[in-house]
Amino acid sequence: MLASDITALWLTIKLAFITAAILLIICIPLAWQLASYKGKLKPILEALIAMPLVLPPTLMGFYLLVLFSPTHAFGQFWFWLTGTQLAFSFQGVVIGSLFYSLPFVMQPLLAGFKQINTTYNQAAVALGISPFKRFMYLTLPLLKPSIGSAFALGFAHTLGEFGLVLMIGGNIQGETQVVSIALYDHVESLNYGAAHQLSLVLLAISFACLVLLFKFNKTVINGAANRA
After folding, report:
1. Rg of the chain's alpha carbons, rounded to an integer?
2. Which of 65, 136, 190, 194 lies 20 to 30 A from 5 at CA?
3. DSSP states of 104-118 as a string?
4. Domain spans of the chain?
5. Structure pTM?
6. pLDDT per residue over 174-219, tens digit each?
7. Residue 97 has pLDDT above 60, yes or no
8. Quick one: 3-227 is in which CATH superfamily?
9. How many CB atoms lie within 10 A of CB 79?
10. Distance (Å, rounded) from C-alpha 161 to C-alpha 95?
């Protein structure tokens, strides 16, 4: 495997791990609130979360590129804050990936919160346990399979990013060139041998992620059946 391909592979894994980890931190409290929210805005909030499922990645990438541009207020603020620009940078790709993979992490968590037996929470309330302690010592342990499933799905989905990464980050080797873009370059240059090698590695990683995903999903189903 070429040195540039190893760099692209490492960058892709790094991007997928950071994206999935940050989304877990963001989505766990949001899913907890949304699962119990019954207000009129719930369909709108759910639709906003699910938007990346139906929007073309290039469309999202275009508007995020405009947002990250040094000529835009947000891009200017980021440059003032950090001294670096978001457009065509790894940091910009990470932020774009958070939007792109949001529903893939959020949905398993929402399903997990909805499956947690309310009897446990009612008993904890009757015992006078605070909401924070109920969340930390009751809800989160019961949610572990869903958290694992959400992380695996978010990680696997980020591995395959192409259009959004290309729009926001371009094709900068060692900075924004992920595996999907490196693979496209090999095919475009008719280097099918390198393309096959890179594809097999990506297939193996994606398959391992899916095995973990189905393992966690099976655990969720079995746990729900045992609590029923």
Report:
1. 20
2. 65
3. HHHHHHHHHHHHS-H
4. 3-227
5. 0.86
6. 899 999 999 999 999 999 999 999 899 988 988 888 887 777 666 5
7. yes
8. MetI-like (1.10.3720.10)
9. 15
10. 13
